[in-house]
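Posting this for the archive.
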Amino acid sequence: MNKTTLLLIAVLCFSGFTGKSQDSVATKKSPFSLNADVMSRYIWRGVNLGGNTPSIQPTLKYNFGSTKHAFSIGAWGAYSIGGNQFQECDLTFSYTFKEMFTFGFTDYFFPADDGTSVKYGNYKDKETGHLYEGTLTFNGTDKIPFTLMYAMNVYGCDARKINADGTDGGIFMSKYVELGYKKNFDDMALTVFVGGTLDNPNRDRGEIGFYGNRSNGIINVGCKLSKDIKITDKFSLPIQTQLIVNPEQERIYMVFGLSL
């Protein structure tokens, strides 16, 4: 069991011993949050990770701190509804300063039900199924409606370099940058984004980047429209539609999703 898992368990256990009465707990807003997205396809940073089947993507989080210093520990998953497609189960940590800047750390893991995947407790170099990524994001403000994210893999099953003699080299420590623009209307929200990888694999040696790229450049361009469909006076159903283009792979996707 790694440090990220231990930290998550410790926080969840601590939350159960607050010393407050049942009446106090019943009237206090829970620090936990949960939801699930149902997506027609799992497209991540311009790359198709879910094959040709819909994907169920559950989330659970424990949120604490203040508006100035907000923390979140949680888990996120992606499971294709049909076929033996790419599955995913991640542990996440984030710290947000004044709702403006967010530092995130994610332990990605890719399980499989066919018995061929590596064990969850294997963290050895070149063997582990874990991937550790750090991110730094500017979330934008009311006056600056732009977002900017920088992400870098730091350890695990990242794409690997190939030495001149053909042997495996170190990991790329793959890097991804994304610029976004957001605009809220009375009835819906618009997000426009463009993202690219900074890594330039050596084609002559047969290297391929983490995002399936054979060179550095733009891999994720698109827009998302989202809105809430009112079902009752107390319940609305969030829906979204995305148009995504990967210029490097010459692929285009249309994705629909809803949140529960």
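DSSP finds two helices and 16 strands in the chain. The longest strand covers residues 217-230.
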